[in-house]
Design a protein that fits this description.
Length: 195
């Protein structure tokens, strides 16, 4: 999992006032702070003091705001460069990050949403999502689920191979590849067969 350590720079108006945070203090031109203020060219100066702007400090803890600020200042390439440098020089476990009084922002990649154990009549263990309401087993069995109200219901099974149908009390049990569809009191139960 990739994590970026970004250092924010401090800036203050030449006339005084609050110390703000920004991804990079430019050599010339205006600068936009994390709290959304735009300081005109030649009206600010870079400082080595900690920020005291409450909004800047709060927003410095939000990875999406930091990422947006870097790209807004066309410093997005710095995020990519930091990622490459980190990949090349993976620190051995146990080494502490360098300490600094300025906030360090960790930008994490989005995590894939967790798949629940069950979606309506489908037990997802052994299946992989193959589209909206479509699931595929390891043997290539496709199971289509349809949403009826708030509940996902079994709609269709597709398999290029033999299918065994067995009459049972209250319905029909189907076996296709590694998937089994069994009738229940209020519908069906679809799952990968246990071997």
């Amino acid at each position: 999992m990739s994590v970026f350590n970004l250092r924010l720079e401090s800036v203050r108006r030449k006339s005084g006032g609050r110390i703000h945070l920004t991804p990079k203090v430019p050599r010339s031109g205006p600068v936009t702070t994390l709290c959304g203020q735009t300081l005109a060219a030649a009206s600010y100066v870079a400082v080595e003091q900690d920020a005291d702007c409450t909004n800047c400090k709060r927003r410095s803890m939000d990875p999406s705001r930091i990422s947006g600020a870097f790209f807004a200042q066309e410093e997005g390439s710095q995020l990519l460069q930091l990622s490459l440098e980190q990949a090349r020089a993976r620190r051995p476990a146990g080494k502490a990050a360098p300490s600094s009084s300025k906030p360090i922002v960790r930008v994490l990649p989005p995590q894939a949403p967790a798949v629940p154990d069950r979606i309506g009549e489908l037990y997802t263990n052994g299946f992989k999502a193959a589209g909206e309401g479509l699931w595929r087993s390891q043997a290539g069995v496709l199971v289509r689920m349809r949403k009826q109200g708030r509940e996902w219901r079994f709609a269709e099974l597709v398999f290029d191979g033999s299918i065994v149908a067995t009459r049972q009390d209250g319905g029909m049990k189907l076996r296709a590849g590694d998937v089994e569809v069994r009738p229940t009191q209020d519908g069906f139960e679809v799952r990968v067969r246990r071997t």
